[in-house]
């Protein structure tokens, strides 16, 4: 079973940047979609950004212009560069992989934006 390992969360001041990274534990084969989701307690998990194995991207409106998702098929990794962070971006961020009808999730990494 594929495992996803996330890194890069932390505490940052408003206007700051963070880079989240996610690596799959084994080689994965096309077609697939990898993405970053956010979830606050008692809330649904919401898409932040996703990328297909062909490089097609999708962003939540709140992420457009501030966040950039990128992927490396050879390394089976996906990164989320977050710039211009706002307090409302505070949440637990999860890496997700959707492949061959299966969903896989990382354990989540906390992003806190606070002065």
Topology, pairings included?
Layout: E1 4-7, E2 10-12, E3 18-24, E4 32-39, E5 46-52, E6 57-59, E7 67-72, E8 77-82, E9 91-99, E10 102-105, E11 109-113
Parallel strand pairs: 2-11
Antiparallel strand pairs: 1-3, 3-8, 4-5, 4-9, 5-6, 7-8, 9-10, 9-11
Key attributes of the depicted protein:
54% strand, single chain, 0% helix, seven-stranded mixed β-sheet
Approximate shape: globular
Helix fraction bin: under 10%
Order of helices and strands: EEEEEEEEEEE
- What is the radius of gyration computed over CA atoms, rounded to a whole number of angstroms? 13 Å
Secondary structural class: mainly beta
Number of strands: 11
Name the average pLDDT: 94
Strand content: over 45%
Q: Which spans have pLDDT < 50 for at least 5 consecutive residues?
A: none
Largest sheet: 7 strands, mixed
End-to-end span in angstroms? 40 Å
- The tally of helices reads 0
């Amino acid at each position: 079973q594929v495992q996803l390992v996330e890194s890069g969360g932390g505490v940052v001041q408003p206007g700051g940047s963070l880079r989240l990274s996610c690596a799959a534990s084994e080689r994965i084969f096309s077609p697939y979609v990898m993405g970053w989701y956010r979830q606050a307690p008692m809330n649904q998990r919401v898409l932040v950004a996703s990328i297909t194995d062909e490089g097609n991207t999708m962003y939540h409106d709140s992420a457009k212009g501030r966040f950039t998702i990128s992927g490396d098929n050879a390394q089976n990794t996906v990164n989320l560069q977050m710039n211009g962070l706002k307090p409302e971006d505070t949440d637990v961020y999860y890496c997700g992989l959707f492949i061959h009808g299966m969903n896989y999730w990382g354990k989540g990494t906390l992003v806190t934006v606070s002065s």
